[in-house]
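FAQ: What does the model actually see?

It sees only this:
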Amino acid sequence: MAEITTGISPEIIENLQLFKELDGDYLAKAAGECQIRSVPPKTLVFKKGQSSEWTQFVLSGILVVVSPSGDKESLVGMGDNGVVDQPLGWSVPFENSAVSQTDIKLIRIKTDRLKHLLEESKPPEIEVSESEEVNADIGTQIYYNLFQDLMDDKLELPSMPDIAIRVRQAVGDPHAGANDVAKIIQSDPVVTTRIIQAANSALYTGQRQVDNVSAAIVRLGLTTTRELVMAVTMRDVFKSKSPLLNKRMVELWIHSTMVASIASVLAKKIRGFSPDKGLLAGLVHDIGVVPMVAHAGEYPELVSDPALLEKTIKEYKGQIGSMIMRKWNFPEDLASVPSEADEWMRDHDGKADYSDLIIISQLHNISSGKHTDEYPPIGDTPALAKLGLEGTDDNEAAILIKDEARDEIAAVQKLLLGQ
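And it is asked to produce this:
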């Protein structure tokens, strides 16, 4: 029988998208009414066609969601700082079934109660003129529609590449090893080639070249292999059905690979940072642009007005990007990167983080340290000091780091571009 306890810390749920609209007393009320439900392995948690009065989130353990066609998705909760940001039961009846693979803990709150708290916490409506309303419709409707679709679990988010999911699950399985990961990677010749290429690159090379994926994994290690598989398969995410909008996707991918390459090389110089994680952070820092561009075709005003499209993207890409990262169940230090990557003067307590790394990597990528009113001097940013890279003037800092590692940065970008 499932064990149930009532009341959790607000910090556990404050970054979940459904609860982000709540602050102060409302968040505390929601946390106080949340329950933690413990479920043993091999238990049917919900069944297709059923309804429920609860909205639930996976706090810890592995829940396998099975679609009517038999496709499976594993939701992996990592505890207080890694709740899966996928509300189960927000929309009913259930379209899928779900079974616990391990012991799991679910956070649950009554759906009607949460909707009531969200309604109560809304700020009073402000009347706007007709012209203001039209502009708001054109510029922001895409965001609110995406947000609502996400809340209703209807948003077609970019799919994490299948091979990346399988490698991630294998690396997280204590019973799996390098051979199991190698078998998965070998099912995709392109990924196989890129992993061997990475193992022989300037970032990881040893005295001898490797010529097979098993040897490449041994050199790289399982964690690095996991991050690199995700990185080299990300290109498939940056696509649009519209030829006009696909051009914007290509530009986005090239920008992301450059920022990722700089971040990876910088991460090697900073204690406590992983080059592979820096690479991944750079690739996903603008991931929120992907569904916005993908859905822009539904708004002729945006397609016909590139300036308005870019303004809309700039305003909302961070929030949407972090939604996607949490939907993909990334750890919070990566999930927060999209929403913080353009906060040039961001300052915070604690140690440097990957958002700091991407801020500096982007500024290095923007005209080699030159700045305009939109981009501050690198030397003025709190992130530079946090990372321990201060000590030279603005232009010198940018040129020094890029010049001394130019070949490394070019090699990493070449790997990502598949050249």
